[in-house]
Amino acid sequence: MKKFMNLHLSNKRKAAIFSSFALLLLAGSFSFFSTKDSRSFQNFAKDFFVSELTANTLNMHYTVATPSSFGIDSYESVLPFYSKEDKEASLQEIVTSLERLYSLDDSKLNEQDAYTYRLLVPYLENEKTGISLYYYSAPLSPSSGMQSQLPILLAEYAFRNKRDVDDYLALLDQTDTYFEGIAQYLKEQSAEGLFMPDYSVDKVIEQCDTIMDESSLSQGTHFLNTTFEERLDSLLSSGIISEEEKQYYISQNNRLLTTVMLPAYQKLGDELILLRGSGKNENGLYYYPGGREYYKYILRSHTASYRDIDSIKALLFQDFNDNFDSMYGLLQSKPSILTAQETSSVSFRFEEPSDMLKSLQQMMQEDFPALSEASQGGELPICTIKSISKNLEEYSSPAFYLTPPLDDIRENVIYINQKNNDGGVELYTTLAHEGYPGHLYQTVYSQLYFNKTDVNPIRSLLSYSGYAEGWAMYVELMAYDYAKALMKDTNPGAEGLYESYKLDRQIQLCLYSLLDIAIHYEGANYKQVHKILSTIGISNVATTRAIYEYIVEEPGTYLKYYLGYLEVLELKKEAQRLWGNDYSEYRFHKFYLENGPADFTNLKLQLEKNKDTKKS
Fold it and tell me: Whole-angstrom Cα distance, residue 487 to residue 472?
């Protein structure tokens, strides 16, 4: 509601305002007075946003570039701390937040706030469940734990001003207490009988020894040395810091890396050695006392799907059978595909990642809204492609995209893991997943749209991995069709080959998703999983063991990709049913981008609510 800033109104303007006010009263709506819930919700959203960001400077820096623009005028540079006290405080904050939300009537909120309200309530209810099962989480998971994530986040920590550099150094100085908190959590987790199995412990210990390499740190060649200097050079060239200040900052960074961060990693590794052998379960969550309940929390949290387990399994089984039949039919009609595997990557039309991204942007134009539609005439994003440090190659995915801050979305980075990069059509589809029309495009378009429509920033704090990864999986598979079109004239035989790659990817991810449920919810052990995999030709013990251990260590991860993808397809079917002849790929994609991130239940409700809205 706008404040009345100019009190010197003419008589005519006063009369017009009074008449409009009277008409509202005569209409019997009394909407002028029904603003209490709206104000309460907006105050809650602002308080929640500021509280969440100021509790973790690392998260805040990656969420907003200019904190003061979001009402954060002062803050301390802090990393979160794992403790029972913080857990209880977090639980109480969620309980209090839900009480405030329950007291509101969402029918009295404007359309955007009402939608945000409907997203917040089930989201916080699920988080309440997660916190109540505090000791089931794995902060040092071998594939996604903070021991491997923290160095990447520090290496990409943007320096826009001196305060950013000071904050960065302050965070470095806290890595010892941060890891001490994690170590204490792990001791308590062990006492609860919930500590990770030895095969996971061994992987994390190796990472602690490798990631913070003492030799490269002493020589100043570690990526946390070199990336720090590169970011300082940018501030120097902009006149923000002097050469003297640059050298001071470099000396401080070198000191903290060798005297705080390196010892922190070494001590963490030592703590893990002492805890090794205390894990009581080498299998899935099923074998922990509250494991199935925690798994249901994980599914909701990771996939953004609120389906029950039986419904999820039915969806997966149907998809598996459909794709298996399609693969069988394809190989029957084109048996030469089986002998064409070796020449696929060298024959692809593009080799350079930058050329692949340009191609993807061209191929997607017809069916996806342009970023310029949501940009309000502002600058469009740029994308930098970087290779991940060799220190992290063993522990990182083939590629990943770092989400930019809400208020500075121009600079975007995609990391490529050269160790796991085969090039060719596989890199092309990976870049579709991470770049266009995947994460980069989705993130930038949604934020541009949010900026244009003044969406409450609290929405950015709600993490719906299934929404984001489901979309990225959806467009990754679409990119195989783009690749077929690119090769149609120069290599017509590639069509069948690329279709087999696409089907193989779907069959594999669907199978792993089903195994995820079998391991964590139904109690399948390694021998049973090995037997299942052997029936489809995956019988190497090292391979099946690696698959099993990854799923044990990362519950719900395959499902956030593949169930997320299937939920996108289900939403698409619903859009086709509701819109009939007015349906188009463009309209559906636009709807998806402008109504998320969200859980799929609320997306479906939004679809039904806006079924009569014509394509813009």
Answer: 23
Question: By 3-state DSSP, what share of the chain in percent is helix, strand and coil, each rounded to 5?
Answer: 70, 5, 30
Distance between start and end Cα atoms, the chain: 28
Q: Which helix or strand (DSSP H or E) is residue 412 part of?
A: strand 411-416
Positive or negative: CA dihedral 199, 201, 202, 204: positive
Residue 613: its pLDDT value, please? 57
Per residue in 338-380, pLDDT (tens digit) is 876 544 544 789 999 999 999 999 999 999 999 988 877 666 7
Structure tokens at 550: 């990854």
Contacts of 146 (CB under 8 A, 6+ apart): 139, 140, 182
Which ranges in 488-540 belong to alpha helices (H)?
A: 494-520, 526-534
Structure confidence by residue, pLDDT tens digits, 571-602: 999 999 999 999 999 999 999 999 999 999 99
At position 133, the amino acid (one-letter code) is L
CA dihedral 524, 527, 533, 538 (to 10 degrees): 150
61: closest CA among 79, 86, 87, 42?
79
Q: What is the spatial distance between Cα 326 and Cα 36, in angstroms, rounded to a whole number?
A: 57
- The span from the CA of 536 to the CA of 538, in Å, is 6
Confidence label for 9 from pLDDT (cuts 50, 70 and 90): very low
- The candidate with the shortest Cα–Cα distance to 462, out of 603, 321, 312, is 603
pLDDT > 90 in the chain, percent: 79
pLDDT (tens digit per residue) in 405-415:
999 998 899 99
Nearest to 185 by CA among 148, 144, 150, 146: 146
Cα dihedral 275, 280, 284, 286 sign:
negative
Residue 516's nearest CA partner among 310, 200, 295, 304 is 295
Cβ atoms of 83 and 184 within 8 Å: the answer is: yes
Asked if residues 304 and 470 have their Cβ atoms less than 8 Å apart, the reply is yes
Mean pLDDT of 119-144: 95
Q: Which amino acid, one-letter code, is at 286? A: Y
Banded model confidence at residue 34, pLDDT cuts 50, 70, 90: very low
426, 414, 252, 242: which is closest to 348 by C-alpha?
Answer: 426
Q: What is the distance between the alpha carbons of residues 1 and 403, in angstroms, rounded to a whole number?
A: 32
Instruction: Tell me the two tokens of residue 251.
Output: 């000396």
- Are 135 and 192 a contacting pair, CB within 8 Å? yes
Distances (CA, A) of 269 to 153, 218, 279, 611: 20, 20, 16, 55
Q: List, in order, residues 6 or more apart from 90 with CB less than 8 Å away.
A: 131
Task: Say which residue the tokens 């917040």 belong to.
Answer: 120
Distance CA 456, CA 362 (A): 32
Q: What is the identity of the amino acid at 317?
A: F
Q: Which residues pair with 402 in a beta bridge?
A: 413
pLDDT of residue 390: 78
pLDDT above 60: residue 31: no
Alpha helices in 238-393 (DSSP H): 243-256, 262-275, 291-303, 309-333, 353-363
| pLDDT for residue 24 is more than 60 | no
Separation of alpha carbons 463 and 303, rounded Å = 10
Tokens 């069948």 map to which residue? 496
